[in-house]
């Protein structure tokens, strides 16, 4: 009897694997095409996907029985907050590049403050004795979502502006770590890492750490011969772009205690980013797992076949974006 039921299970497992693999190939191909199109295309991608992410996040708080009691404004508050937060963070970068003399740039932060003040006034006007408690629940989830999702998502716009290389490095290191953790855990996993995610193992975590550090050290070597990856302000698909070579892409010899070693400084910076991507960024994913477990969810959404929602795929990226922009702006010349 068991022999009759095994083939369908095995077939379903292979079918799910094929769906996941096919989706992954499309995602990778699409992301490479977007990166090649430059930082404006990356901004457009982030701008669109962040609305999907905030919807996936805030829908957890929705109580269908209470929805009729709140106004249209409060229902759409997550999307309004996303737009305003995105404008607050990303607009100065774009305005400085395309409208440097615009009053929008000069008075940017004052304008944003006025918008936020207006939103608070409108929110309070829409409060009633019947919906007050639930309205504040929706407001709280909007604030949290904007802080943990929208702010770091827009920081990636700055990373892409530094150069396509740094954006690709930050994004790809997370992808490598996630993939290596999966295969290391499946192959060697024996000891659970944290209670929130029983499938995450110590062996998977360590294997991903080692593999990501190796990738972080050697991956920059693939880009040193292609200036369009490390030049700033590259036009879409301008693969013949040339510019002054940044110091981190100049082969440098370092001497210590009578011994010397030669490498690109970008390799060292990439190694540090890889260390963060392996040791700290995964806890963004664990945090997401804890939230899903607390609310009895399997995935945040179902937008990507076999992979769940947007947040399910990029939860670690939010942590990496914040570290990436702070590290690059602090320790590099940008």
Automatic annotation (TrEMBL):
It is an enzyme of class 2 (transferase). InterPro entries: PC_trans (IPR000374), PC_Trfase_euk (IPR016720). It is found in: Membrane. The chain crosses the membrane at residues 77-95, 107-127, 139-158, 164-183, 204-223, 268-288. One of its GO terms (cellular component) is endoplasmic reticulum membrane. GO terms for molecular function: phosphatidate cytidylyltransferase activity. Keywords: Lipid biosynthesis, Lipid metabolism, Membrane, Nucleotidyltransferase, Phospholipid biosynthesis, Phospholipid metabolism, Transferase, Transmembrane, Transmembrane helix. It is a multi-pass membrane protein. PROSITE patterns: CDS. It comes from the Eukaryota. Pathway: Lipid metabolism; Phospholipid metabolism; CDP-diacylglycerol biosynthesis; CDP-diacylglycerol from sn-glycerol 3-phosphate: step 3/3. Its main location: membrane. Belongs to the CDS family. This is Phosphatidate cytidylyltransferase.
């Amino acid at each position: 009897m068991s022999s009759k039921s095994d083939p369908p299970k095995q077939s379903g497992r292979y079918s799910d694997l094929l769906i996941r693999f096919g989706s992954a190939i499309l995602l990778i191909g699409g992301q490479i095409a977007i990166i090649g199109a430059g930082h404006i295309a990356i901004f457009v991608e982030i701008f669109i996907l962040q609305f999907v992410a905030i919807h996936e996040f805030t829908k957890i708080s929705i109580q269908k029985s209470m929805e009729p009691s709140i106004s249209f404004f409060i229902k759409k508050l997550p999307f309004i907050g996303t737009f305003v937060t995105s404008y607050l963070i990303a607009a100065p970068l774009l305005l400085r590049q395309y409208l440097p003399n615009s009053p929008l740039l000069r008075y940017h932060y004052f304008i944003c403050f006025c918008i936020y003040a207006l939103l608070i006034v409108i929110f309070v006007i829409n409060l009633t004795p019947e919906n007050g408690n639930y309205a504040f629940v929706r407001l709280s989830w909007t604030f949290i979502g904007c802080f943990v999702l929208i702010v770091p998502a827009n920081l990636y716009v700055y990373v892409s502006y530094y150069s396509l290389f740094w954006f690709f490095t930050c994004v790809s290191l997370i992808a490598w770590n996630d993939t290596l953790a999966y295969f290391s855990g499946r192959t060697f996993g024996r000891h659970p890492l944290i209670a929130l995610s029983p499938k995450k193992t110590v062996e998977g975590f360590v294997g991903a750490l080692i593999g990501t550090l190796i990738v972080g050290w050697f991956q920059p070597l693939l880009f040193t011969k292609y200036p369009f990856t490390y030049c700033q302000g590259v036009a879409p698909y301008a693969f013949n772009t040339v510019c002054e070579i940044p110091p981190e892409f100049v082969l440098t010899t370092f001497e210590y205690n009578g011994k010397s070693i030669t490498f690109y400084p970008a390799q060292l910076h990439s190694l540090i980013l890889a260390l963060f991507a392996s040791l700290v960024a995964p806890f963004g994913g664990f945090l997401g797992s804890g939230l899903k477990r607390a609310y009895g969810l399997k995935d945040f959404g179902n937008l990507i076949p076999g992979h769940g929602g947007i947040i399910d795929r990029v939860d670690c990226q939010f942590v990496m974006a914040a570290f990436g922009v702070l590290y690059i702006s602090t320790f590099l010349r940008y």
